[in-house]
Amino acid sequence: MRTRTSIRHIAFAAKWPACALFCFAVAPTLGRALPQQADANAPVVLDHVVAVVNRQAILASDVDDEIRLSVLDPNLVGQGTLSRQGALEQLISRALIEQQIREQDMQSIEPSEDEVEARLGEIRKQLPACVRGNCATDAGWKAFLGAHGLTPERVQSYLRYRLEILSFIEERFRQGIQISQQQIDSYYHDILLPQYAPGESVPALNDVAQRIQEILLEKQVNVLFDAWLTNLRAQGDVEVLDPSLEPAAAASTDQSPAANSGAAR
């Protein structure tokens, strides 16, 4: 029987190709001793499919990658490490949305290289974890990437798809939604500023106002987006193959699924 999972969150990374269900390799016997009861001829699973979304595979390594990249997500600041269940939920949701983007051939929402570089620059200068790591400098950015097991190419790919899906959400759901300056000011003073430790360099309101507006827009479109995504999932075929990644009942929270759609400060 297929195991189904609810979808509550989205975020952005590379498009994962459908690939072979399992990859195996024989455990090496040179250079290290095998456990006493291990079978030297037994295959060792290097990677495996943990979920399938409309015949598109999500691998265990994709989940690990999502967790590493979560350090760049401003919506997760202060919430601790992203769980494997949460990472899989984000990947499932993203796969469904990317399939819709491809189906509708929405090439107009693809971000330019300048947009990706601009967003990267904002993250290096404004994300609290990057401020503490002095990511504005090349040496600081290199050290930050190394500490989190990331590469510049992987980060750019991640940001590109965050921007793409954000554009898709805005184009489809934001019509008629207005964000006031008062809402932006409140978010800046009540939510953003407390994320910085005393003495840390804090970005000016004018420098982050656009990013704040994006985050608030995403929260406003939550109801419309959530209903659309729920319907999309009901019409599709989502199968979780790894029981350990089934979301706990408490995982269905009040957090907006659009809140993780990629509005990086």
Topology (SSEs and partners):
Layout: E1 22-26, E2 43-53, E3 56-59, H1 60-69, H2 84-103, H3 113-126, H4 128-132, H5 138-147, H6 152-173, H7 181-192, H8 205-220, H9 222-235, E4 238-240
Antiparallel strand pairs: 1-2, 2-3, 2-4
Outline:
46% of the residues lie in helices and 9% in strands. With 265 residues, it is of the alpha+beta class. The termini are far apart.
Structural class: alpha+beta
Identify the CATH architecture of the largest domain. Answer: Orthogonal Bundle
Helix content: 40-55%
- In CATH, the homologous superfamily of the largest domain goes by the name Porin chaperone SurA, peptide-binding domain
Number of helices: 9
How are helices and strands ordered from N to C?
Answer: EEEHHHHHHHHHE
Largest sheet: 4 strands, antiparallel
Give the low-pLDDT segments. 1-36, 249-259, 261-265
CATH class of the largest domain: Mainly Alpha
What is the straight-line distance between the termini? 42 Å
Radius of gyration based on Cα positions: 20 Å
From the spread of the alpha carbons, the general shape counts as globular
The total count of strands amounts to 4
Report on this model:
- It is a single chain.
- This protein is an alpha+beta fold.
- It has 2 domains: 22-31 and 40-177 and 221-256, Porin chaperone SurA, peptide-binding domain (Triger factor/SurA peptide-binding fold); 178-220, no CATH class.
- Helices cover 46% and strands 9% of the residues.
- The protein is built from 9 helices and 4 strands.
- The chain has helices at residues 60-69, 84-103, 113-126, 128-132, 138-147, 152-173, 181-192, 205-220, 222-235, and strands at 22-26, 43-53, 56-59, 238-240.
- Strands 1, 2, 3 and 4 form a 4-stranded antiparallel β-sheet that branches.
- β2 (43-53) and β3 form a beta hairpin.
- α1 (60-69) crosses α2 (84-103), α3 (113-126) crosses α6 (152-173) and α7 packs across α8.
- The longest helix has 22 residues, at 152-173.
- The chain is globular, with a radius of gyration of 20 Å.
- The model is unreliable at 1-36, 249-259 and 261-265 (pLDDT under 50).
